[in-house]
Amino acid sequence: MKFLLIITLSLLCLTLPAQKAHYAKLKLIYPTELTYDTLLVKGPKGEVLSKTSSVTREGKKICTYLISLGSNKQGSFSIYFGGSLSSVNDSLFFLSDGNELLIELQDSFALRNDIRFKLKNVYNFEQLYDQYKRYYTSKMQEYDSLVKNNPAYPLSSQQYSLNAGFDFVKKHLENPYSIDLFSVFIINPPFFHVEYNQANEFYIKNLKNKIESINTKIFVEAKLEKLKESLKEGTRAPYFSGRSIRGELINSSSLSGKNVLIIFWATWCGPCMKELPYLKLINEEFKKDNLVMVSISLDRDSIKMIKVINESKLNWIHLFNANSVMESFRINPIPAIFLIDEKGTILYNKFDRKNETDNLEILTALLKQKFKH
Fold first, then answer.
1. Which of 40, 154, 223, 296 is the residue whose CA sits 20 to 30 A from 241?
2. Are 38 and 85 contacting, i.e. CB atoms less than 8 angstroms apart?
């Protein structure tokens, strides 16, 4: 196994008078009984660095390196340890304003679990994401309390959770991983219900000028562009085809002439699970009408999905592993729901219904009007 530790430094540097250059000192410590096929430190240009010293104390090996920094007193280096250099299994990113880095490897899997740092302003994605999950949980508990005290609370859980995501990123802009959190979770389907203008405005105001890498900027802005692609009401629904969990071929042709309610969901999606009781009510009320319900699960675990379907008695058509259907409908966040009439026109797209409630009041009213209930 091989690991790669990528560290970017902003340091109070050691200045070597003879060279008049800026340097940072790295001390790499690991138990003497550990053996690595590879243990290299590379500098900013990928050059392999030589140890300036190597000593053994109390069963630990201490190797010292000098990392050359640029004129702005910033630089980068990588630590490779484990297996071959041809594969990278891990990467972490750090900043420090100290003039010495001390990194202690506990074992071959230390990067993820047992690494010790004596650094100031240490950041990595796992730490930030753990903080985010705790913050998100507390904010959603806060939301439940607000709704309990005021059933007419103006924001949906989707919008409240999205605001919580934006707020968290804003509070952690000094952390380089705030950009990753924004692009991987906050605006990346299927985690949040977010429209392009809202996400782009936040990006331009808070993040765009902080991104130095052109490749990172391209990646984030491509994520933003995908938010424009939601299918609009009044347009023709795309052709789709997939196999149900019973092995039946379900496609636009087999459902021709019927009103179809298409639901994109997953067992790990909290808002999706909250909607299930209301979807059951819709199925019970309109099953005698010309309405067919088709759910497409984004789950990877079909066993868990089928268990939820059976236990919750979701008695309609279910597709699994239907990526082509997701692509056809340009799914951004989930839950996503589309109502398609017997002519193939999209009558309802939940993404476009900003005032839709968690109990699907707008959809239910639309169905009642259509079927004259």
1. 223
2. yes
* pLDDT value for 367: 93
- Report cis status (omega within 30 of 0) of the bond before 277: no
List all residues 6 or more positions away from 199 whose beta carbon is below 8 Å from its beta carbon: 186, 187, 224, 227
Structural domain span for residue 157: 125-229
Whether residue 101 contacts residue 76, with contact meaning beta carbons closer than 8 Å, is answered with no
Q: Quote the pLDDT of residue 365.
A: 92
Q: Walk across the sheet containing 74-82 and list its strands.
A: 2-10, 74-82, 38-42
Three-state secondary-structure class, residue 7 = strand
pLDDT beneath 50: ranges in the chain? 1-19, 83-98, 108-122, 190
Q: What does the pLDDT read at residue 218?
A: 84
Q: What is the CATH number of the domain that holds 322?
A: 3.40.30.10
Q: Would you state the structure tokens that stand for residue 67, as one six-digit string?
A: 């990392």
φ and ψ at residue 116, rounded to 5 degrees? -115, 140
Residue with token string 């690494």 = 115
